[in-house]
Amino acid sequence: MKRKMPVFASALALTMALTACSGTSGNAGTKETSSPAPGSSAPAATAAASAAKDTITALLPPVSPNYQKNFDQMAKDFNALYPNLTLKIEPAGWEDVKQKLDTQVNAGSPPDIAFGGSDSIPKYIQQGLLMDISDTVTPEMVSDYDKAPLEYMKNGKGLYGFPAYMEVHALGGNKPFLEKAGIDWKKVQQNGWTYEEFREAIKKGVVTENGKTRYGFVFAVKGVAAVDYLGIMAKNAGMPHAFNKDLKYAYTSKNYLGLLKDLRQLIDDGSMPKELSSVDAGKRWNMFLTGQTMITGKGIAVFENSGKNNNKKLEAKDASAVKDSIPVDYVVLPAPTFQGAKASSATVVDGYLTFRGKKEPTPEHKANVIKAAYFLASGKVAATTNNDLFAAHITQSAKKEAANMKIDRNPDNIAAVDNMLKNATPARSDIPTELAAKAIKLETEVIVPKFQGLLAGEVTPEAMYEAVKTAAIAAFGADGVVKD
Description:
The chain is of the alpha/beta class.
């Protein structure tokens, strides 16, 4: 009898595997008998062929200029690595990806994976459908990452996905205009600048030629983009986060009022257009390419590549070049510091958030979602995407893949970004979910509309500050806000 037991066990295992293979799954998942390790080669993948079939869904916007063009290849490569798994990608635009995700989350049926900002994690945790993967993620996946970016995907002890990149939100200038205005842009890249220095510099960048004005500085602020401008500058004004280390709401500080006055002053100086509140991201970039501004914001590394591509079109007399555009030489610049505060570079960590449906996913499906999210966030996919973005690689596997990929990037800009990353605002996984969610609500309902009014000249800095202070006390209590 003992000699026959292994034969019986093998037959039983085979029967169970064949039975399991007949099922499919979405968010609920199905049982899987075996799976290869992340990044494994063909033999391990072949072994997974007998595992239960499963489908992982992903909602993905155009992360980089060529990202969505690679979706079919991504799905094929993932299936080659895990023959039993299918990666089903739903494309979305930047304009509607958040709305699509929120609609699906509110319906209780989100995708398994969605690309989004790490700052949205508290919101989705509170809605109960973000999936903590800390108990299932493998040590090999975690060790592949640089430490700092991964911290942004955490809240408390939970890990809610994988970061795609850690990017600096900076400013960008057109080198010929900067030099014409007498601005030592290399010195600024290396040492930064104060608000006072920045203010005088952009005044020099205002030029009127042939009845047209070139502004010193333009930032995209229409709609919710307004909070990007305010948030980036607030970090450099002694308020790196909405809460200080004692978990008191920071935007009731006197520094916040000072910042609001300074930002309004740049418009009153004439260094920024009076119609700034109507400038969206597309118009901001168009103004830069057509020579209507010396410095633009927010700037990210990929803008250098976009500028070079438009230059090539101009040189080739390609009709698809931006109308009335001029050759530009994009220079990365840090945001100024305010009120004597230390530089605290605004970093954005976007990535692949992991979701669950109303029902608890099976352990096997959860593991499969993790495999898919890690596949998208590391190795060849991440290397290709981040090179397209001119973004730094944050996993060892992506760095290895990128070693043989050609990239034409200004070394001065690389050094400037590296300098800003040294002062990057650290992640704050200690901020309780309920506090973070309240802060997001206050930002949406009070800060954004009031700041839009401030930029349009309809609200004074003092009035906005008092409105934020009143709302903050109502949300966090009189003892829950900064008093200085």
